[in-house]
Request: fold
Amino acid sequence: MSKNKLGERTICTHTGAVDDPVFNGAVSPVYMSTSYNFLDQDPKRYPRYFNTPNQEFLGKKVAALEEAEAGMLFSSGMAAISAVMLTLLKSGDHAVIQNDIYGGTRNFIEAHFNSYGIAYTFTKDLSANSFEACVQDNTKLIYLESPSNPLLKLVDLFAVAKLAKSKQITTAIDNTFATPIVQKPITLGVDIVIHSATKYFGGHSDISAGAVAASKDIMGKIWNLAKDFGGNLSDQTVWLLERSMKTLAIRVRAQQKNAKKIARFLEKHPAVKKVYYPGLVSHEQHQLAKIQMKGFGAMLSFELSKEYDTVLFLKSLQLIKPSMSLAGVESTMILPALTSHALLSESDRLAQGISSQLIRFSLGIESKKDLIHDIERAIDCSNQK
Reply:
């Protein structure tokens, strides 16, 4: 690290704070105004233009964490994803889409791309060769998600970014699971980074938001579309998100520490058929994770053996919450087949390796021993033998 480059915890704490020149408060003031003076002002500020003081400055924090030139905040992760895709793609264009992605993203593509005249191809697998095989003359976007939701599969980001640049194709990645604390895709050659800021950026299960970071040129194009579609984040929520992001680095590291320990515990448990976590040596892409990630993240998934009732397992938990969403300081579990990937057909889910026995586990900051005790008790209660 250079002497002038701020550390991640310093960026989380200080970068993107709004100055308070009148009272010199320790935290950013919140600007609730929806109306600003326009005379001799450039740029003119308006909430839908994504440039109120709180919006503008928090975008700088996101950009700094991702080592990008610029950043923007949105009202949700899907608002961010759809804005990026509809900026880069028009009628007659083609996109290469990673097969193993968040169900909401896949549903957006399958439900709406045809009406826009946009063609798309899902990759056969996550190898660079598979991405290359899908590229067509009119391909304008390669869309990635690594680690993937919910099977924690990895893409060789450097290899795919190199492929895309050789063909002048823009790359975008959903970096929600990793966070910039664990992975910085732009440093590996990816053009655009997207986050569901509802997750780790918010970190307390009480904020809905999205974020995008990229070059100033790309962000200008995204802004030009987003200002007309809406999707801006309210300033009160922006302020809450800034407050939450101050602890992003310390939260993610604590959660990641728990994930590695719990993954090892589950891998040894006789009731568990398989564990999906890049930090395990048994993960088929463990070596790739060591190269392109700084740590292995705080998400994992596991499959219970068939004799265990997964719904009863979740209902038997007392500490861990069977809850939608992820990445809060409290540990949560879901059944992807009933939640994040419920919009997919059963055949599509099974093709992606998502069975009814699969459980996605978002690790919080609780004590490891308490989490293990809760899991063991729930496993005992869900045994159907």
Remarks:
- The radius of gyration is 21 Å.
- Residues 8-245 form a domain with the Aspartate Aminotransferase; domain 2 fold (CATH 3.40.640.10).
- The chain is about 40% helix and 15% strand.
- The longest strand covers residues 139-145.
